[in-house]
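Q: What would this complex look like in 3D?
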Amino acid sequence: MTAGDSPVRRRRGSSMADVARIAGVSGQTVSRVANGKHNVDATTRDRVLAAMREVGYRPNSAARALRNGQFRSIGVIVFELSSFGNTRTLDAVATAATSSGYAVNLLPVLDATQGAVSTAFTRLGEQAVDGVIILIEAHELDEAEVMLPDGLPVVVVDSSAHYDYPVVDTDQAQGARLATEHLLDLGHATVWHLGGPSSSFAADRRARSWQQTLTARRCAVPPIIVGDWSADSGYATGLQLAENDDVTAIFVANDHMALGLLRALHEKGRAVPGDISVVGFDDTAESAHYWPPLTTVRQSFAEVGRRSVDALIGQIQAGEHHHQPVAVPTELIVRSSTAPPRRS
Amino acid sequence: MTAGDSPVRRRRGSSMADVARIAGVSGQTVSRVANGKHNVDATTRDRVLAAMREVGYRPNSAARALRNGQFRSIGVIVFELSSFGNTRTLDAVATAATSSGYAVNLLPVLDATQGAVSTAFTRLGEQAVDGVIILIEAHELDEAEVMLPDGLPVVVVDSSAHYDYPVVDTDQAQGARLATEHLLDLGHATVWHLGGPSSSFAADRRARSWQQTLTARRCAVPPIIVGDWSADSGYATGLQLAENDDVTAIFVANDHMALGLLRALHEKGRAVPGDISVVGFDDTAESAHYWPPLTTVRQSFAEVGRRSVDALIGQIQAGEHHHQPVAVPTELIVRSSTAPPRRS
DNA sequence: CGGTAGCGTGTTTACGTCAACATGTCTATG
DNA sequence: CATAGACATGTTGACGTAAACACGCTACCG
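A: Here is my prediction, written as structure tokens for the whole assembly.
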């Protein structure tokens, strides 16, 4: 009789009963020791602990979850893990959740089609999670909203407030205003904008705030240019804008596009910040080392992640529902890619 | 009697028994329908399906896991999520695991101290996972190895082969050789190296391979410079190397350090690739837009992630143990940061 | 027409844990 | 010295699911 010859049923280590037998106590006492209850005699506790080590006891979280009706686990639905912001937010979420004693279940949406999103939510219904944080663009969510299981606590990380779920996000409007005003304050007549894709609420918020800031200052509003967050699209835009002598200041909706734009301006021989000033958004770890070092808007992904987890755990444990959206403030980091316009 | 007034016990929706009662069948039949078994009459199945929809039935994965002894979930221990390679690998792991029907449990190690690593492994013991992929530097693992639960399938993503666990990683040595030979083939007398931290096996492999390649070509071996993967450390190194006229070619162990180094060379007025050629390692999405566009070694994180998952699921389901390490090949991407040395 | 194989369905039971309750023991108090 | 109270420990049962087995019906065969 070799171990593991049954492919169906895997015996994973030993259970409470084994420990109990070896320590000469009841299963209940093992349970008490495992859960750190106080009403166990010191010598008994030691005996149980020794027995646990001997058999390599690990509590079975499935049984525990079944008994308690809770998994102590949260799901994170993420659309594109490799995107910069999502990664940083996920990192913060994982950290916050872990230190609150919750496990993190990753639920990637494999592709962008509506069917895939729905599938992800269906799968979610079967997941062992007490709540969900949604890190995908809310436009996608719209399509599949019906699929969300009833009564499951949800927090959406997005800038769109018109959901039934609590929302936590960076204060996109404030960040965009900071960037635009910085350039205007330097003396530029107006500010151009390379925005994110229209599928993104965040991009939408930044663009609207840029436009409002210009209007409030009675500046001309140049046509918006739409990118897709990638350095490639920044590069393409840069090649085009470099030909336009009217352009002296650009607010780019993220740092990666700004990088591509900087490269295009180098190639076209346009000096930054001499001829053109550039402001980004994100403040990646590398942005300080772009050429020239990039002035940008720093968003606190850590804060967004932490507050999302707090909100979700609040819902899970206390049934709280804060429908008041949380907007995490940003900070302008001034480096060397911005300067007053050249006298002409 | 309001819902949720018991904070301890949460009733999540309805169980098989509810569905069974409404459909007028036994729980077992509901189970068969839920699991797509064939031996259920079509009309009965429809009745059960209708009842499921009516009460919003979702199978309880805790009970299922308890019954089956499997969680259909894998854990990923990750040390620093925000590091570039880990993120990409995690993305691939999540994708591969999901399409194989496994959930992904994220287990972040909150800080670098040995205690924290041990804590993570202890926590791991309590996680609902059938196997684990370890994405942290194996040096860290060394310290805490004893803590790994017995009999739990493990795959290590690292370049160090001397573990009891299957290992999957990029072929670091081949990549470093590609980079070094490219520079030598361009005519450089020798190649300097900015390596990663000594705590990293990957950095160690790249450095050793760089040195071996130089030795094989009978080139002088300059002193190695040690960075910490950050653009900051690349910048610091660049400021220093810019003063040294002997340096005409540098192989940098990752693209982020290369970015910082490029910035330092710009600031010091050293032309790239005119005065100095630079090769990186990773090929991030941005590397093509560095100034100048960076020649670098592309590693296939997607492949590493996929093969890790395959190996792990193989262990879980069939008990296979391939102790033969898997080395995923790299590819040299030639852009504009390398050129023959200037005639002097 | 007796036997049996196949199929849809129901019944029982075990998975590992932990709350509730029950029991036993030891100490303090009138 | 009887009794209550505090405290350590044991016993029972239930959480939701699915495997194993049991049952009864129909179809087919010699």
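A: To summarize the key features: Residues 9, 15-17, 27-28, 30-32, 34-35, 59-60, 62-68 of chain B lie near DNA strand D (CB under 10 Å from a C1'). The two ends of chain B are 89 Å apart (CA to CA).
Q: Very helpful, thank you.
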